[in-house]
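dumping this here before i forget
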Amino acid sequence: MAVALYLCSLMNTVQKNIRHLSLSELEEYFEAIGEKKFRATQVYEWIWQKQAGSLEAMTNLSKDLRTRLAAEFSYPALSVDATQYSADGTIKSRFKTADGHLVEGVLIPTDERKTACVSSQIGCSLSCKFCATGYMARKRNLDYDEIYDEVVLINQQSEKVYDKKLSNIVFMGMGEPLLNYKNVLKAIERITSPDGLGMSPRRVTVSTAGVSKMIRQLGDDQVRFKLALSLHAANDQKRNEIMPINETNHIKALIESLNHFYKQTGNEITFEYILFRDFNDSLKDADELIKIYRQVPADLVNIIEYNPIDQALFAKPDDATVEVFMNHLEKNRVNARLRRSRGKDIDAACGQLANKDGE
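structure:
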């Protein structure tokens, strides 16, 4: 009862986000105000299984009870602020938070799967030179319920446009997921829980620019989702140039942390490698990538076609250079896949849409 009494006293001054209460805390709250304990389960189901979006939408609660909850709790859900539709089927959305910030999410459809690419932070602090988000200041971390909302809203788009639910989720949007560790893991717990969205953790991939300490922590926490490392350059000198985080998380440390992660979890590891013209697209670069690949039990190397942005001078290589690079990897028994750019006719690169209108 102590939690409920504390909550009731807190309501007099600050509205607490109702989605940040556990089921047991909700039970204590309802008992404290003289309501039946099962009301907590009803509210919890509305929040995480039925994706209510507001307290008013919880229609099996009385209007008086909904009014009281609205007076005592906040429900800061994301809303869709802008949407762009690509000719290739990609749907990019700009979401607005309850406090007015903008963040992006993308639905990437193929015949086999419908993938949500979600953000973990508003802006980013890593300043990667090729990334639109890297030119934005980090405003704050997204809370786990906001990340959950991204998935819910993109799933609704998938069902409406393609008549299919999401099959996969990738944390490859705005921000560095491992610098918002607790919220990302809590969001994934809600996304994969039977009393949440019930998705398999094997269909979730977290992509990191390379925070070696937190990669090791993922292993120690024995997470069940997949991990992708955004490598993009296969030696420290070049990686320092385009990804300042490498100065404190060099490639040797990343290799060690990835091996620790795999030893603890056995989960799939992928390398992400964007090709930049005349920077990391030579056969010497390919050989350095092969050397790293052979030091980590990685399942795949995704070679990514670059989406140019206004702020950076990088360009994508011509098709012949890409073909030579891919053939060299294949000849050396690297499991590599060329990932073509999607949404070229819209603000496809991460951060471009959120950067508009002053955010």
